[in-house]
Design a protein that fits this description.
Length: 95
């Protein structure tokens, strides 16, 4: 399915890692909101569904969604790095 907060928590939960995106970066709340809107538009396009009225699909909206996905990926990378560091008792990779 589409990535969302719940599916990300479930993925990290499989490894017994806590996924606290709010603590990792306060900007993640708005990033998750952007991800939800991106998924809404994606589903409308993929399934020929009703076109969302807000926000209008535009280049600035797409750029914002891209930046939000990049920010979430960086947060997830940091969380994984810290969890692996605890387990391995050393840096898992060069940050």
């Amino acid at each position: 399915g589409n990535p969302n907060l719940q599916s990300l928590k479930e993925d990290f939960g499989r490894f017994k890692f806590d996924l606290d995106l709010a603590t990792a970066d306060p900007a993640n709340k708005s990033r998750l909101s952007d991800l939800a809107m991106l998924n809404t538009w994606r589903n409308a396009a993929a399934h020929h569904g009703k076109i969302p009225s807000e926000p209008p699909l535009s280049l600035p909206a797409l750029q914002t969604w891209l930046q939000s996905c990049d920010g979430l990926a960086s947060s997830l990378d940091g969380i994984m790095y810290n969890e692996l560091r605890k387990i391995l008792k050393r840096a898992p990779w060069v940050p």
